[in-house]
Task: inverse folding
């Protein structure tokens, strides 16, 4: 027990370490990169060893599956300090083997460390599984309604539809590139390559970890594992290179006006960039988190939220030297934050298996709602585009939560009730997205399963099974297409017709 406690303490210390020297010295040609890589390999191997010991102990005690416990908390904290939180999922051990064979630096894997080492963590009995598989066949999407985008050479971690030029979609990959695709009505496509490195050596540690279009649709921002944010024109021209972080960028968000770009990083800080001129610059850097900042989201053009592996949520405002508010209600690292359409309610989700809704106008620092019925970590939350402040103000506001327990839950923020439990997935659910009308929801999980659900009655209306794991799903603004990003290097674009 003493030895296990010491191992947990060592794992916890991973978070408080300074950012790896690889990022601090990336412009120093004399820096010994080989030594850095060896040190990083040793650190990751230590984390893997600690995780294996924790699993063995848990198994000997009859545990498993739950996602809680001090061993898992220590493991999650340690791995989070080294991994990206944007839906990427390379297995650490595989990375180490490839890295040792090719003498290349570790590429960012999913923060949760690849395949669930507890095995299939979603319990479904054989009879129910057979029924689900039969129903999935009846609702399977016709292959003729699927377009495959297949020019990336590594996992596709995220995608974003252009909000104005609706036949354009941007994708980001572990191949150190993003692409802007033009989709034609005849099921053909072509893409523009946005390179984040120009040769094998230059592409190291440049996985694209996050991307987002501006509200005008004219410019695209990308963030990468080298700690650099880049701004591109719709035609693929590199407009700005924003260097200020000392570690991987995990999240990027434009404010609605489009003059500020917000980034959150492994280096524990968030930066607001002024991108109105020809050369972007740091408007303000916020360094209030004690561990990596995993997600950021704008409330309005000046105020934003951020969350961290330090278990807190910070509300900050441009021009203010201290956080406006700090929420400390979570008991484990906080994976995502999202503002509702009105900008008054903030949702957060955590490895503590809870999602919380905070009322920014309340003088209290405890959550308005505390949703606790998930059995494992909650990876992401999404608000419906409904209710006050949305384009669908007459429809009720809902919050969707997606968990490693294989379920998606829909919550009413009017009374805090769980309205629906969507539980067909057989693996961890990494991404959910409401359609623009709020009438439909898509969800994607490991093992390549995508479902489209009717929000009003909770029925699944379409199913699709691809190769590999799904990292992100996204609807176009016209509600006619759903895109899914896969670990098998492809993006599947699915035609959708309202039933």
Result:
């Amino acid at each position: 027990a003493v030895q296990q406690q010491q191992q947990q303490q060592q794992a916890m210390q991973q978070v408080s370490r300074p950012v790896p020297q690889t990022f601090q010295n990336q412009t120093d040609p004399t820096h010994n990169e080989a030594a850095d890589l060896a040190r990083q390999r040793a650190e990751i191997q230590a984390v893997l060893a600690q995780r294996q010991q924790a699993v063995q102990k848990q198994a000997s005690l009859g545990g498993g599956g739950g996602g809680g416990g001090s061993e898992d908390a220590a493991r999650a904290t340690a791995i989070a300090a080294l991994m990206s939180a944007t839906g990427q999922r390379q297995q650490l051990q595989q990375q180490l083997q490839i890295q040792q064979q090719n003498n290349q630096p570790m590429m960012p894997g999913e923060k949760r460390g690849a395949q669930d080492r507890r095995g299939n963590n979603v319990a479904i009995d054989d009879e129910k599984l057979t029924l689900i598989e039969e129903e999935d066949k009846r609702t399977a999407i016709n292959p003729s309604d699927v377009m495959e985008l297949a020019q990336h050479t590594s996992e596709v971690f995220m995608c974003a539809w252009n909000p104005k030029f609706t036949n354009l979609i941007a994708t980001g990959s572990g191949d150190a590139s993003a692409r802007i695709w033009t989709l034609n009505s005849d099921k053909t496509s072509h893409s523009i390559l946005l390179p984040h490195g120009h040769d094998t050596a230059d592409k190291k540690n440049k996985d694209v970890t996050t991307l987002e279009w501006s509200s005008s649709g004219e410019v695209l921002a990308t963030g990468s594992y080298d700690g650099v944010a880049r701004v591109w024109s719709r035609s693929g021209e590199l407009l700005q290179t924003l260097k200020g972080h000392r570690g991987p960028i995990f999240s990027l968000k434009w404010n609605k006006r489009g003059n500020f770009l917000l980034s959150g990083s492994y280096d524990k800080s968030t930066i607001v960039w002024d991108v109105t001129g020809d050369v972007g610059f740091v408007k303000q850097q916020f360094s209030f988190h004690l561990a990596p900042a995993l997600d950021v989201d704008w409330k309005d053009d000046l105020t934003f939220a951020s969350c961290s592996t330090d278990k807190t949520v910070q509300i900050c405002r441009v021009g203010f030297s201290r956080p406006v508010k700090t929420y400390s209600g979570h008991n484990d690292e906080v994976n995502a934050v999202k503002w509702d359409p009105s900008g008054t309610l903030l949702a957060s989700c955590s490895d503590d298996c809870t999602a919380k809704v905070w009322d920014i106008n309340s003088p209290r620092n405890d959550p308005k709602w505390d949703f606790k019925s998930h059995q494992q970590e909650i990876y992401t939350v999404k608000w419906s585009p409904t209710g006050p402040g949305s384009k669908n103000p007459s429809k009720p506001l809902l919050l969707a939560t997606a968990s490693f327990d294989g379920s998606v839950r829909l919550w009413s923020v009017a009374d805090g009730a769980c309205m629906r439990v969507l539980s067909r997935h057989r693996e961890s659910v990494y991404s959910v997205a409401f359609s623009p009308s709020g009438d439909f929801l898509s969800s994607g999980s490991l093992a390549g399963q995508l479902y489209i659900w009717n929000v009003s009655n909770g029925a699944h209306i379409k199913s699709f099974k691809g190769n590999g794991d799904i990292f992100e799903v996204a609807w176009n603004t016209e509600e006619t297409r759903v895109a899914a990003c896969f670990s098998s290097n492809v993006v599947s674009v699915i035609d959708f017709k309202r039933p």
